[in-house]
Amino acid sequence: MTTLIRYFFAALALVLVPAGASKAQPYPNKAITIVVPLAAGSGMDTLVRLYADRLSSALGKPVVVENKPGAALMLAAQQVATSPPDGYTLLVSTSSAMAINLALYKKVNYEVKDFTPVSFYVKSPFILVVNPNLPADNVPALIALAKKSEPALTYSSPGAGVAQHLSIEYMKNRFDLKMTHVPYRSTPQSIQDIAAGHVQLGFAEAGASLPLIKDGKLRALAVSSSSPLPQLPDVKPFAEAAPAPGFEAVSWHMLFAPAGTPKEIVERLHAEMKKIMADPDMKKKVADIGLLPIDPPSLPETEAYLVAERKKWGDLVKQLGLEATQ
Question: Could you give all domains of the chain from N- to C-terminal order, each with its CATH number?
Answer without folding.
Answer: 32-123+251-319 (3.40.190.150), 126-241 (3.40.190.10)
